[in-house]
Amino acid sequence: xxxxxxxxxxxxxxxxxxxxxxxxxxxxxxxxxxxxxxxxxxxxxxxxxxxxxxxxxxxxxxxxxxxxxxxxxxxxxxxxxxxxxxxxxxxxxxxxxxxxxxxxxxxxxxxxxxxxxxxxxxxxxxxxxxxxxxxxxxxxxxxxxxxxxxxxxxxxxxxxxxxxxxxxxxxxxxxxxxxxxxxxxxxxxxxxxxxxxxxxxxxxxxxxxxxxxxxxxxxxxxxxxxxxxxxxxxxxxxxxxxxxxxxxxxxxxxxxxxxxxxxxxxxxxxxxxxxxxxxxxxxxxxxxxxxxxx
Amino acid sequence: xxxxxxxxxxxxxxxxxxxxxxxxxxxxxxxxxxxxxxxxxxxxxxxxxxxxxxxxxxxxxxxxxxxxxxxxxxxxxxxxxxxxxxxxxxxxxxxxxxxxxxxxxxxxxxxxxxxxxxxxxxxxxxxxxxxxxxxxxxxxxxxxxxxxxxxxxxxxxxxxxxxxxxxxxxxxxxxxxxxxxxxxxxxxxxxxxxxxxxxxxxxxxxxxxxxxxxxxxxxxxxxxxxxxxxxxxxxxxxxxxxxxxxxxxxxxxxxxxxxxxxxxxxxxxxxxxxxxxxxxxxxxxxxxxxxxxxxxxxxxxxxxxxxxxxxxx
Amino acid sequence: xxxxxxxxxxxxxxxxxxxxxxxxxxxxxxxxxxxxxxxxxxxxxxxxxxxxxxxxxxxxxxxxxxxxxxxxxxxxxxxxxxxxxxxxxxxxxxxxxxxxxxxxxxxxxxxxxxxxxxxxxxxxxxxxxxxxxxxxxxxxxxxxxxxxxxxxxxxxxxxxxxxxxxxxxxxxxxxxxxxxxxxxxxxxxxxxxxxxxxxxxxxxxxxxxxxxxxxxxxxxxxxxxxxxxxxxxxxxxxxxxxxxxxxxxxxxxxxxxxxxxxxxxxxxxxxxxxxxxxxxxxxxxxxxxxxxxxxxxxxxxxxxxxxxxxxxxxxxxxxxxxxxxxxxxxxxxxxxxxxxxxxxxxxxxxxxxxxxxxxxxxxxxxxxxxxxxxxxxxxxxxxxxxxxxxxxxxxxxxxxxxxxxxxxxxxxxxxxxxxxxxxxxxxxxxxxxxxxxxxxxxxxxxxxxxxxxxxxxxxxxxxxxxxxxxxxxxxxxxxxxxxxxxxxxxxxxxxxxxxxxxxxxxxxxxxxxxxxxxxxxxxxxxxxxxxxxxxxxxxxx
Lengths: 294, 313, 541
Hints:
The complex is a heterotrimer.
Chain A: H1 2-8, H2 10-17, H3 28-45, H4 47-50, H5 82-117, H6 119-134, H7 137-148, H8 152-178, H9 182-189, H10 194-230, H11 242-249, H12 258-285, H13 287-293
Helix pairs in contact in A: 1-2, 3-5, 3-12, 5-6, 5-8, 5-10, 5-12, 6-8, 7-8, 8-10, 9-10, 10-11, 10-12, 11-12
Chain B: H1 2-29, H2 34-39, H3 45-54, H4 61-73, H5 87-122, H6 127-139, H7 144-158, H8 174-208, H9 211-218, H10 223-260, H11 266-276, H12 279-307
Helix pairs in contact in B: 1-12, 5-6, 5-8, 5-10, 5-12, 6-8, 7-8, 7-10, 8-10, 10-11, 10-12, 11-12
Chain C: E1 2-4, H1 13-28, H2 34-37, E2 44-48, H3 64-73, E3 75-76, E4 78-80, E5 86-88, E6 91-95, E7 101-106, H4 120-133, H5 135-142, E8 144-151, E9 154-159, H6 166-170, E10 179-180, H7 183-186, E11 203-205, E12 215-220, E13 244-248, H8 253-261, E14 267-268, H9 276-279, E15 285-289, E16 295-301, H10 311-320, H11 323-330, E17 337-338, H12 357-360, H13 365-374, E18 382-387, H14 396-406, E19 411-416, H15 418-424, E20 438-444, H16 472-483, H17 486-503, E21 508-513, E22 516-520, E23 523-524, E24 538-539
Parallel strand pairs in C: 2-13, 2-14, 18-19
Antiparallel strand pairs in C: 1-15, 3-10, 4-5, 6-7, 7-9, 8-9, 11-12, 12-13, 14-22, 15-22, 16-20, 16-21, 17-21, 23-24
Helix pairs in contact in C: 4-5, 10-13, 16-17
């Protein structure tokens, strides 16, 4: 059976590529998700090519217009073209998602490795991390955005803060169990310097779960940005993001639901794709899952 | 085991102390002057300055910090700068709507999510599993306020089955409470069901991989029976965990839901306080929600040691 | 009362469809609600006001919602009627021939909510606390020798020099009216907020049901003795026809709209203009302008820092701005905004539009660009502050940013919440260090209709309003206004002030707009006043 599936589904090839045992099945859903995500990323990155208008050009006389040849998805309360804003808005939303995930993973990895390896630092670091985890993420982000003012960088910073502890916990738990492995103990007894051990032996162990974690952080950051915008604490009004297009449009929900519908649809599809890909990656990387699949 | 529990309880103290410090520092670094908002839009700089002085906002930060800590140790969260009411009283007044609605959505979520997750685990890898998982991922891919607006539009504005907004306490009649609470609870539930269903599925799959379940299988016990009798019972603890940790998510969710549905709970209290820089209220609220989170996790940890025979300390 | 009951909805095809749907559902059946049955015997008015009430001291706070609360709970000595004439309310008065001594006599039957009689001593203490906080009152206090209670009902106010506007200041509706409180409450320092909320007004504040920012409840004061004249403006008899008034705050304007159409509430004080087409489809709801003076949006520049420390730069910026684009974006429907270059309001006794021609014509970008070059603009960034949490008001800075950019300014539009904005505008630092160059706000028609009360005019540098304009010439004109005798002289001075304000670009008027209220048809007889008041109001079962 394994041979058949490898020959007929593209998943077999990918599985081999990722070094997974033969027979790991990837359904059709993740492929749809990947295609959808790629499509969204491409039209977003190349927004200038597809946008019929300047996304921030005001036109008070064209407020809240319905769909037309000139404005395919209509206009918002400032008379700006909704299609162009949704396309450009993806740039900011994806940037926030990717940057938050990247910063949270890098910072969390560093802190987690230290906590996992140095007993002394561990207690202090973990108490601080527990404290950050205890504060509800939206409240923490609201307070942080209020400090730094509404901008893309402060939103990224604010969301990153509540995501770091989760990464630290993950990395630390992996390090703690890996530290007991014979090859690490051997390296320590051979007098290898700590940074080298961390880098050479422990980093690889943590990489796969971190990638999975990163997809979830990316998805949740895009959503939290929308919530912050809804509360009036997003990135501001001029530069579009999916979140603030919806936040600006929410007053007009009964009047012109399309202002929320289109950015909401694209945002939800994007988050959905990222989550599905994350789930798929986790299932493939989890050895116990693999055992059962086989 | 008792030693472990005591140790866990003691560990709460430094965490809460750090939370207090973080909250205080974040807030006092925030630009914003409660005196300016109290004085109003047409107040002159002089009027604001004299108000600030009389509110004690000109004291050095560390003095204000220790004053606050001193109050905290007496169980006093301080006094709202804006309304002059005590923060304890404000919270006592506003926490019930939030707790009641959160509780209702937990009950609804568990009632929906556990059967769904069980179904997914039973049909693992097959069509039913994919459908359940797709729905549950979709559940937390849509922002809560969008869900709320759609529910209002459909059930309140168009069908007129339920009121648009507002809150009635259960003491004013259970029927009225449910009529007002059902839409907000459904909004919160969307994301929560997703989380709980996934956790149920994952922990069931874990348990099903264990040897004793395989043994049961080998003995010829039916799939469904194994799943329900052995699987679900043993997966209860991880499910409980997600219900508990998800509480933090709920507390974030109520911020949005309470402003969409006009519910006088602590979520709105917090956002209003942030917008007005009403420091004592924000500090009290964050401390409270963090405290709830820490407490719930403590209880879950203890439940682990009590219920799961495999965990020993 | 101006009333708009339009059957057609121009310009909103989508809205029309949505609204038709809502109307159909409404016609299909009326939903019985527990909210109204709970107080079936009592007549209760439930209103959504323009913002949440948190501050209960109407002397310390200049916020309009706190002022409105003041008119519920407290009474005033004298008040302005619908024609703007000062009338007796709690007291009548006599003026000595040399116009230096005003004698106020309290009428009979006045009592506080705790049962105590209102005495002259209460009045004196209240006036002193008010005089220590309010800007216009401060001018009056400078000309005051003493205010004394000579017996239980008589207050003697002695001036050191004639002050022709004494009664006008005492009767002013906004933003800090001279509310009368018990002596022990009025003894609170003017820098601290009061903690006891006892007045002698027509409504009693129900402290037990107060939820700051969420809900406030008033009950009729049964012992209130209204004057016999019919109500007119804020003067005349304050006859209360309902038992309870509840103000509830709804953070979401659509929730409020649906609640009104569902019959859950009776009034929305300030309805989002874009939602009116939907509200107008409801046969149970009336949409109307209660206060014809409305509000004036304006932009204020910072006189302390480049580029706007240079009047040529300020003029170039003003040339780039136009009222039409600002109002069209903010309000949308031209029924509810009007272009107006008069800083004291259009159609008011002192209104005059001199100097606002370019603003009303939509601005002239080419001319602005030329002025900018001649002034030697060095591309200094212009920081515009925008608040994102105040609904439609937050749109004006976006329009200004776009206009200024087109004229060649290097614009940095910074978004923040309203509270950060009001704190940051007090910062005198350079824009690069937490300061600012432009912010926008709005003034209510009734508090900006004379040079005496207009909040933005004081141009005394660091002690003036945010932006810190220094203009001795303007200050002289304001001082002259206080001494002016008769309307003609006042008009002449107001005309000079108008010209001076726009010539020196003290601020830029960006158009006037109305608060549009939406009420249930069950709610009737609401007075057409700028301050929403709930006496005279009636509600059908």
